[in-house]
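lol ok so funny story. i was supposed to be doing the assay writeup but got distracted and ended up predicting the structure for this chain instead. priorities right. anyway since i did it might as well share w the group, maybe its usefull for someone
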Amino acid sequence: MMKTSSKNFGFLLTRNLDLFIILIIFLVLPRFIPVTFAVHTLVYGVAALAVNVMYGYGGLLSFGHALLLGLGCYGTAFALNYLTDNIVLAVAVGALLTLSVGALAGIFALRRRDPYFSLVMLAFNVFFYQLWVGPLASWTGSDMGLFVKLPVTLDKSTFYHTVLIPILAILLVLTKIFLKSCIGSLLIATSENEEKVKSIGHNPYVIKYIGLLFSSFLAGLIGTQLTLYLAYVGIDYISPMTNPILVFSVLVGGAGTIIGPFIGSIIYNILNYILLVLLGWHATIYLEGIIGLFLIILMIWFRGGLYRAIYRLIKGYHLPDVVR
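and the output, tada:
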C-alpha cells in the first residue's frame, strides 16, 4: 500500500513538476525582495499566463490583456466602494465584469487571425482606458487611481501566504486541466492548422472563443486579488502600456509553457527592484531599454525562451524543444 502511494505521488510530482517549481519559487520569493514586489511578480506572472494561453497555445498574440487585468482590479474596487462589503461577492463582480468584456471583445477580435486579433484587443484596451480617464473619471479616480474600502484587512505577508499562494495553486491546476483537456488540445490544433480542425467536425471560432474566456478568467481573478492586497487600484493596471510587460514575460520566459510566463515576470520585477535599490525611483526610465536589450538577445540566441534553453541545458541539446 505504501509503495503504491509512493508511486502515485512520484507520478503526480513528475507530471506536474513545473507547477511545484512555481509554487516553491513564490513561497520563498518574499525572503529576497519586498512582499509587494513579490505580489506584483505573481500577479503579472498569472496575467502573462493568460496571454500565453492565447498566444503560446492558441497562436493569437494579445495586446489587450492589461484591460482584462485592470477590469478585475476595478470591478472589485467598484463593488466594495459602491455596492457591498462582502469580499467574496466583490471578487465575483470583478471576475464577471472581466468575463463579460472578454466575451464581448472575443466576438469581434476572433473573426480573423493575427494581426487582426492583436489590434482589436488593443483597440478595446485603449477604448476602456479613455473611458476611465475621461467620462468615468469621477468613478475611477482617473490618473490618481481609486482607494478601496476594505471591510477586513490582513497583514501583507499573511495575505500573500494565506490567500495569494493558494489562489495561485488553484489557477495553475485549472490551467493545467484546461490545457490537457479536449478543448486545450483543439486550441493547440487550431494554432497549427484550422482547416484540419474543421475537417474533423470542430468549429475553430468556438474553440478560440472558449480559450479567450478562460484566459479572461485568469487575468480577471488575479486582478481582483491585487485590489484586495493594495486596497487601491492604479490606472497603470488597465493602461495599454502594461501590455508590453505581459508580452515580454511570455516571450522571455517561453511561450507555450506554463512556467515560462512566471520566469519572464520574475526577471522583469527583479530588474525593476534592483534598479530602484541602486538608482532610486527615477531609474525606471532605464527599464524599457533593458527590456529591449533582453528581447534582442532572446531573438538571437534564445528563440524559444529561457525555459526551453534551461531545459535543453539540463536534458541535453540532442533533445527537441519542450512540447506544449
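The chain has a mean pLDDT of 88. The two ends are 34 Å apart (CA to CA).
back to the writeup now i swear
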